Fold Anks1b protein.
Amino acid sequence: MACCGASLTPLAQHAKSLHTSRADGVPMHFPMYTVSLDTLLEMTKVEPHEVLKAKDMLVDFKGSMGKAAFVSHQWVAPNHPDPEFKQMRVLQGALQEMKMGNLQRIPVELVSEAAEGHVKPLPTSRLLSEPLFFWYDYFSCPQKDRVSRSMTSLFSPEGESGSKLLDAINSIPAYVQESSFFFGLVPVLENPHSSNLITPLTWQSRGWCRLERTCGELAQQHSCIMVKSPKDVELMAGTCAFLRAGCGPVGEGIFTVPQDRLKLGPVLVAAVKRRMLSLLRAQDLPGYRALLNQQHILLRGMTCEAAEAFLEMEDPKPACEDSWGSSLVRSFFHQNGFRNVWETDSGGWSPLHYAALKGEPLLVEELLKIRADPNQGSKKVHPAIGQPAGTPPLSIACIFKNNEAAKLLISAKARIASRGFVRGPFNCAAHANNTEAIQILCHAGCSPVQTNLFGISVMDGAAYHGALEAMHELLSQSTASALNPTSALYNAAMGGGSADVVQLLLEMRADMNAQTDEHWKRTAMIRTLYKVKVLQHRLGKVTMVSKILYHAKGATPLMIALLTGQHECASALIAAGADLTPRNSRGWTAADFLQGHSAPEFLREAFEGRVEACQRVSQLSRGWVQLEL
């Protein structure tokens, strides 16, 4: 029965009432100290807050002064973020490339381009059109009484400066909100203070970096400028961050001091609540629904309660009695502004999609009882989640590791094959490194070797996203040869090819020197994409996808890794003995792909005949301890 009436739902009415109200500012408990672009470029070492303040080099940033950039980075040493000035030198180099006009656009990185075709490159003129100021934790936050934090939490203030540091930490959401740009400083560097490697993957896995990135996404900074080297700068879309190797909730990140994880919970909850209210004020109901039902994911690993919904269930009577079901469903519809189970919102999602995101099994079960369609595909790319049109609820459950909900959907006859989807349930489980979902789907009859519309296999997707645990699970469900490790190695070279991923694929007998064109032309869909992108590239519309496909014929995995700036993957291939001499169909060797890039020293040495540095980097990235002989 059609829903009676077309009046606004209580949620829509509430959002409309908020639309003209004054937005609450994000509280800032400590001034936003920054340095100007010119000051940053003149630095020869990274000095603490107190030193720069005494030199009168810090600027208390206000929006009227220009634009601010928030710099997120991984600390190299316990008491100093960059003792050898290697990370900062990379950022300086990238900014100099922009100022000199050598880098006029920041291209969209491959995962974001593939997941969200609407993301556009960022003109660097937008960064430089106004005075630019940089927030960087070591010189923007008090450091005077900071001691080794291997045993002491940052939330154990000592004296006045300790409390000021705590105030600055609690102000991180405000700093991000005030910033027009969010930088991830992620070069591949050896850590001189321990036997490991600093990489984009380790940055994504650190709890503090996850907090900063999440605050950026909540502050509508949906894109992160990833600085890998002075000439390898990419734009990463925040809406597909959960598919990346190492990414995940703040509470499941790595913390040197475990209790910091618990203390950050209130900071994150407050940021989530502010963002939800902001979305309601903007009458962005799909964005609000996405965040309301995603809270439990953002807060995994933290012992704190999610922000309460903004509507009380005052009147339990539905507009249409026969379409609402149980009190649980009525409450869900009320809080999410739905009228019935078949409705699709302006973001292209049905109630069951949001329930799969929420992951509450009883809610999913109740919606299925009132005839929710487990195979209903989304109508468009969701603006806040980023999944493509046609995505079914089961894929959403698999992406966000709501595995009990996934079981219920499967029992309700949700389709499990991936062939009819760009991102079917099995592909999504592998992308998200969801080993339990892989087991569930295999038990339900899924084949580990199935492919999607583009001929991309589940193992290809897992390797592309650096999902090492998922790769191991797939291997336990099939045989190495059936999983086509050579194809997966090409995908690893394009995306999340850590040294561990490369090593596993080589152990599965992947051909590291393969030169094949078949990988790029498996299905009609990928052949069409190949032709279109190569033509676009020739006409000057250059993207990361077009560059890869233009050079694909005859390219080796090493060539692809160098082309996409996957420096850790390239070092692992070279360390394993990859041949540097083959040429692709354009006549390019691997060395040619370094032209125009500022490759790390360990890669430059390899092409001069010295591979020892690549071998050391590969060992460090796999957690091996290098002993002095």
